[in-house]
Structures are given as C-alpha cells and as structure tokens.
Design brief:
By secondary structure, the protein is mostly helical. The protein contains 65 helices and no strands. GO terms for molecular function: fibroblast growth factor binding.
Length: 1143
Amino acid sequence: MAPCGRVRSRCPGPALLLLLALAARPAAPSPAAGLPGAAGALAGAGQPAGPGAAAPRSARGGGSGSGWKLSEEAVCREDVVRLCSKHSWANNLAVLECLQDVRELLWNYKLNLTTDPKFESVAREVCKSTIAEIKECADEPVGKGFLVSCLVDHRGNITEYQCHQYITKMTAIIFSDYRLICGFMDDCKADINLLKCGSIRPGEKDAHSQGEVVACLEKGLVKEAEENDPRIQVSDECKKAILRVAELSSDDFHLDRHLYFACRDDRERFCENLTAAGPALCHQCPEAHSTIPMCLLQCRDALTTRQKLIAQDYKVSYSLAKSCKSDLKKYRCNVENLPRSREARLSYLLMCLESAVHRGRQVSSECQGEMLDYRRMLMEDFSLSPEIILSCRGEIEHHCSGLHRKGRTLHCLMKVVRGEKGNVGPNCQQALQTLIQETDPGADYRIDRALNEACESVIQTACKHIRSGDPMILSCLMEHLYTEKMVEDCEHRLLELQYFISRDWKLDTVLYRKCQGDASRLCHTHGWNETSELMPPGAVFSCLYRHAYRTEEQGRRLSRECRAEVQRILHQRAMDVKLDPVLQDKCMIDLGKWCSEKTETGQELECLQDHLDDLVSDCRDIVGNLTELESEDIQIEALLMRACEPIIQTFCHEVADNQIDSGDLMECLIQNKHQKEMNEKCAIGVTHFQLVQMKDFRFSYKFKMACKEDVLKLCPNIKKKVDVVICLSTTVRNDTLQDAKEHRVSLKCRKQLRVEELEMTEDIRLEPELYEACKSDIKNYCQNVPYGNAQIIECLKEIKKQLSTRCHQKVFKLQETEMMDPELDYTLMRVCKQMIKRFCPEADSKNMLQCLKQNKNSEVMDPKCKQMITKRQITQNTDYRLNPVLRKACKADIPKFCQNILNRAKDDTELEGQVISCLKLKYADQRLSPDCEDQIRVIIQESALDYRLDPQLQMHCSDEISSLCAEEAAAQEQTGQVEECLKVNLLKIKTEMCKKEVLNMLKESKADIFVDPVLHTACALDIKHHCAAIPPGRGRQMSCLMEALEDKRVRLQPECKKRLNDRIEMWSYAAKVAPAEGFSDLAMQVMTSPSKNYILSVITVGICVLFLIGLMCGRITKRVTRELKDRQVSVVLLELPSLSKSD
C-alpha cells in the first residue's frame, strides 16, 4: 500500500494508513535531544498552523526561537510534574510522549506538528544518507510531506541510528490517534458509524482515547470473517486501511495503543526481561502467555484480535513477515497481482512454505521457527480460524462448549468427526481438514499442544530414541498404540489427529517425502498444496498401495523406500477402521448394521470380514481387497503381529525378516498354531484369518498365485475357497484314478492344494458344509470341546451313532476321505508325528495308516499313537469303504459273495462291518481270491486280539461282554481275552446273534491258527518243531497240529495240548449247534474234524463201492443195447423187398 500522500494531496502530513491509536509509553530521555539541529527546529514546529488552531499563550507571539515549552503551560504543568521525569521537562517531544493523555491542546499541537514543513526538513537533515540509499524516498517531491511517510514505510530497512530513532519517535506521535493518519478517516468513516465504534469528530469524545475506535474496527473486521453476516461488512477501502495500519504497527508493541494498555500489566509480569520497545518480541511475549489463567481477560481479548488479524494478513506479524520475506519471494508465495485476500492469508503463506519444505527445499531456520510458532497458535485456538467458527459453530455449541484453550476445542471437534460424540456436518469436517493441512502437525507433533501434553510420558519412555520434533514420533506412538506403554488420554488425542492425517497422504511427512516421486509417476499427483478433482488426496494412498504389491511381471512397482512407508501406513490403519477413510466411507451403513457392538480394538474389521457375504457391494469390495492384501502381507495386521511376536521370534523369524512376505509368515503361524509357546490372542487371530480365507480363494495369497490359472480353467465361477479346493482335489483324484498321462492341475497348484487341504483339517469351521451340518450336534454333544487341533471333529467321530442324520452323513464322508488319504487325518498325523518319522519316513501319504498298523505292536510304539491307530482300525472295520486297501483287494469278491448286503447299503451310512463279516465267512471256506484273503486274514488276526475291531461282535454281544467278560474288557491292552472268554462261555450265551458271532469266530479259527491268538501263543513252540515246513493259511498248520495231537509218538506242550482239546470240544459243539449250511461248510467241518481220517476212509470206501457197482451196471447195459441194435437191423433188412415192390 503506497503512502497516502501519493493518493490525496489535501493532507501534506506523513500520510500513513496505520490502524493504530495512541502508542503512549513511559517517559524516557528523548532521542531528539541528541540530534544536532533537530531539537530547536522541532521545538517550534508544533506552533498553531492556522487561525482556528488553539495555541499556547507563550507561543502566540514567537517563532522557533521563543523557547516555548509544554511543561510551562498551566494546563500541562501538573500532569508533567506528576507523570514525567524532571530531565524531560525541557524537551517538548519527551513531554509530548509522556503526556499522551492530555486533552485538546496536545492533539492540536500534534496535528500542527504533522503539517509543518519543518517536520520534513528535519527528516532530510537527520536521514540524509538513508534517503540516498532508498531510491523511492529520494524521488519524493519536496515540501509535500511525502518524505516522512516513505521513511516510515521503510523504517525496517533504516540502518542509520539517528534516523531510525527520529522516525520511531515521530511514528509514536503521529499514530497516537486515528484522525492523524492521513486518509484513514475518509476510508473508514462510514464503517465506524455502521459498527458503532464511536465518534470521529473532535469534542464528542476524548480525542486521545480513540484507540478503542481502531480496536472496534478490528473486531468488526474479525466478526465479518467469522459470522458471514451481511449486516456486518467492512468496506474494502477500510479493510485495507485497517490491515495496513496493523501491519505497520506490528514492529513495536507500543504502537498498538489498545493492545499496549490492555496488556501492560501482563507484559511487566511475564516479559520483564524484554527490552522496553523491542520489535515484535514485546507483543509476542504476552501471546506466549495468552493461555495462562492469570492473564487479564482484556489483554487476552486484545491479543486474540491481533492474532485473528494475523490469520487474515500475515504481514500484521512483523517478525513472521521479516523472517520469511526472502523465502516468500524465493518460492513465489507472494506473486504480484494475486488478490491480497488470498496471498496475504496466514494459511496461504504456511502452506506455500510448507510445500517447499516437503519438496526438500531450503527454508531459513528463522522462517521455520516463526512458522512453527504460528502453526502451534492455530492449533491451540480454534477462534483464530474463521472457517472453523463459521462452519463448526453448531458443533462447538452442542458438543465442545467451554473447551477453548490449549487445542482442546479442536480435539473435541475431531472426536465428534470420528463419530465418538455425535455427527458433524461436511463443512465443519472440511474446515478441520483444511486447518490440519495448514498447521501440518504431522511434521512436528509439538504443534499440537493437546497431543504433546497428553503423550509426553509415552514419548519419554517409548520414543526417547527419536529426536524431539521428528515426524517419526507420531509413527512411534502409533506403534505403541494399545500397548502397556500407551496412556488413555494420549491414545484418544493420537487417534483424533491420525483420523485427519490418514485422509490426506501429504500430511504424513515421511510418506510424502519417500513417495512423492512415485505418486507423481504412478498416480499423477500435483504439488503439496495443490489439489485435483481427478485424484483427491484420499485416493492417492489407495493408488500407492495398489502398486506396492504388484509383481515384477505386472510392472510399475513402487520404489523400495516408498513401499516400506506404504506398509507402515497400512500397519497403522489396521489398528482402527476409522483410520482407513475409504473403508469407513463405503462401510458406514454396514458398520452400524452388523458391528455396532464391536467396540474393542480391531473388532470392527473382523466383524466386517465375518459378514463379508452380507455387506453391500461397495463395502464388500473394499473389505475383500483389504483382506486379499493382508493375505499377501499379514504384517499389515499390526495387532495380530504384536500378539504373535513370541511365536514369530521362535519359529518364523526367517520369513518375518523378508521384506516381501508373500503369505509365508501366515503359513508359518498356521503350522505352529498349536505349539506350547502359542498364546491365546495369537491363536484366535490366526484362526480368524483362516476362517476369513474360506470365504474367497483370493484371500489365500499363495493358493491364489499357484492356482489362479487352474481355477479359471477348471473351476470357473467358483469363489469360495472350500469349493475351489474340492473342485481341484476332485480333478486331481480323477486324473490319478484314471492314470491320466498328464494331470490337468499344474504341479505347483497341486503342491499348494495339498497345503490348503491339510490346513482345513485342523478346525471344523474351516469346512463350512460340515460345520453347518453339525452345528446343533456340536452344541448338544461337544459344547465344551475346543475347536482347534481337530478336537471337535474327533468328538463327533466318537459319538457318530448319536449324531443327526445329516451330520452323520457328512462325518462318514469325511472319514472316507481321510482313510483314502490319511495325511488329511489331522489328529492321527499330530498324535503319531514322531512315530511316522521313526517307522514310516519314506511311506507315501496314502499308505501312512497302513504303515502305522504294521508297526502298531512294536515295543517302541508310542502308547498314544497306538491308541489312535486302534481307533482308526475300529472305524475302518465298520465299513469296507473306509478301508481303501481292502476295497481294492476284494473288489471282485465283495459283489460276488456279499451282493445282498450291498443292495441294502446307502452311500453315506456305515454297514457296521457286515461286508467284512461276510468276507470272513468266505475266508473260512477258503473261497476268496488271494489278495482279498490276505487282507481278510490281517483283519481277522487284528480283531482276534481286540474285540472292538469286530463291529458285529461288539454290537451283538455287548450285553454278554458286560456280564460274562467285564474284567477282560476292562484291560488296558487287549490281547484276545474277551474273545477267549466268549468262546469259553459259549454255552452260557443266550442271544442267538451273539452265539452266531462266537461260532463264526470258532469257524474262522479252524481256517488258520493265526486268527486264534490264544491257541497260537500256546502252540507256538510246537508249530516251530512239528509244522515249520508247512506254510500258514488255509488251515494247513491247524491240520498239522491236529495230526500231531492224534499221533501218540508226538509230545505236544501241555498248554498247547489242553487248548487243542478245548478247541475240539468247541468245534464239536459248534457242529451240533450250527450244522453245515452247504457243501462247503460240510467239507470244512470234515477237514477240521478230529475223526477226519476215519471219515475220509469211510467216504473213500463208499466211493469205491459206488464205482464198482457203476462199472458192473455199465457192462450189462452195454450188452442189452447191442442186442437191441442187431434186432433193429434185421427188421429193416426184411422190410426192404416189400417196399421196393410197392414202389
């Protein structure tokens, strides 16, 4: 703004548009006293200039040499003696400065002084060298009063001491009343009347108390910005005048009369060490203490008004404008021809210079220090931001009244925006977002006083290794969120601030510094303080994290530094769903609908994942994308990683140290989920992620990458992971069974498919169809059983007969799958893990159970594993379909001999051992194929040692076992005692079905001694001595022993002899009770009978007799036949002649 003398010729005085009232200060020795030639000239320069001017009586007849003194005037003498130091009485300027409150005389004197040509001549004499240096002032015309106006404008550049003191003294006098400011009355006359700021005509009010008028205008200017009331509008001319005056008075606390008198006591109390009239600092000190409760309300209001003016025009702050002048010019923050209302705003200056800092440009330390002060000022007092007052008035009154200072009101509004105290309008939210960008607390947490005070203890303990003011302090605090080191108040303040930082990627200083190149290259972003409708700030981060996880084949990846920062931000956002702006925006309705009660840390995202299928489309896509991202880098789940830290350090530290996760860490956690070091929180988190993965195969990163092409080709339109696994597994199985030359499923997919299948067996909830079918059964029978370690599945297997039909069917199908591939039997693999390593290290997964069964009775077999093997054997013997080896070996025998049983069978219901019992009988008849016979022999041998392996025997003889063989059944290890007990008590058995089963056992034992463990044990030595050369099977060794028993030359062991005689009696009884049902049974009874030789002899004699009789009958028949033929020939020959005659 040019000196007003250039605009209005009517006022020859020092025309400066200064919005300033009386800048009275305590009397001091006048600098003018030391100015050569100046004192005398100025002593007479204040004489009346016209007839209407009131003049001192001693001055009316004299000029400059009359020696007239203000201190000698009667009207002033008392005030001078009372208020002014004695050594100043002789100097009119010193007295004038002292007596700023004198009435009309002083005002007229000052007015005459400012219009006297001598005023300018003294300035030319005192400031000769300065005028020569300042070209603009040297070019001012002589005698029009413009020179002093120019010097005042450039007083910040005056280095000459005498000139500076002179101009300072003149400024204090001239600006003691707004009416002395050239043009100010003309520019603001209408506004003063409109705002009712008091009189502008002398005589209506104390002329030298009208600093209040200027203060009133300033408040009107502030009120206009805050209320947007059309009734309160300051004219543009007056607005410029007010701000220009405030600007020019900013270098000296005393020049703002209203501020000076309002804060004089506080200044002396808090700022006693400052110089009496130092530039800027004198008014900054009360500002620094403006939040102290002791500070007078009047001073606080005055300071707040000045701060609000600074917010509208940064030049009102002398220190800020001076410190940042060169930087503003360097980075083109005050471009010419821009509207002053824009370029002069403090927010514009801050954002422009902050943009330079964020781009890595050099900004002077003095300027940065000033910026820090004013950013902190804006964060502490919301009233300094007109947009906040205008947009958030209702929210402040309703939610945040009475929280004015120390940034508490702003944080209260932030809390409201986060949704913790109610709703907030979009305008208010935008105003807060803009303020956060202007103050940029992400660059230095100390700017946010509320956060700084709340988190001081946490910073001192958890973040003490980071330099104070470093932007990484906020990241450190976020890393310790929800930990023991975090305090509640700090947690709230931190989340309130992070809510806004997370909505503009530029507000995270480290992220912006590391990623601005990538954002410009990949996301087409603009400068730090520029926005784009096509790429709003909230969308930039989404763009960055999409590129962060691209593969090398996909190209256009982020730099390593930027990727690390993106991962850091994702880790932080995972702690609170409100820190993800896109997620909160798209899922607001679903959060209220499904997750209103999920208020604990991290529960909201888990809730959304649990209800993924129920979410609206946009929300489902966002949650799905985030979950897919987590599957690739589970370290994004900061809370889960914190809970799993011990297990990671112990078992997964190698994969955790990899910069690129690719799903390895989660796979490791799943594999070690049941280690003793695993804590409950980690186990729950890992299980939850497994359950979420089942909703979409894309949520399993390694599975997705290995099988995505196979899924598109073989399982299109299938989304759920469990369905994809079943689809691919079925394809693999079919290709294997059909001996396909080339598998349709790729090798890498088959390997990962195996991993997924094994993981799914650990928890019934990972198999949704089974879980849904058995949910009610679980509640009824397995309510207190944990889900992990397949314990629920094992519980259902043990009570299979009590399950509902649908659940029973699903469990049967599960068992069928497990028996075909024992590696999928989680419990078996877990319990027998060490035994598998010992006995079956090279066994194929499908033969694992067979290998374990073969080593079951080893002395070093683990008892728990042995018990588990027995359980699986019991299961297999309930249905031949659960024994793949038997099923394959007997595939021809089963339909041949047991078709009637198959006709009654259902696909998903056990046959309770009926087919196996049928095959056992055919084994006794020696009618089975060799492969089938071998398998049945093994089953008979195993069930002979443990009655539980014979489901038909256990089902039909349960009462007899309880009553007759309770002691044997209670034995810890079964060695055939129960079967022997039933055989011995055969005569006591009343139930026909049970008796039949025991008789079948006796019948089976005739076929092979190995199926009779008691007899085999008793006769082991005799078999070795007498029957070693005879191969086992088909009753051969049993026949050998029977012959040895009849041979008196052979001496058998007493126990063997006794057991053989017992068996003979049992077989005889069995023959009586259960006669042969067919020729095969009869032949078997004969062959196993003690009188076998006698019976065979009789049969042989009988056959011979029959042969002889047949032979004799055959000769007689032959003779008769020949005689008959001869007779027939004779008859024919006799009849031939007669036949020929007739012809």
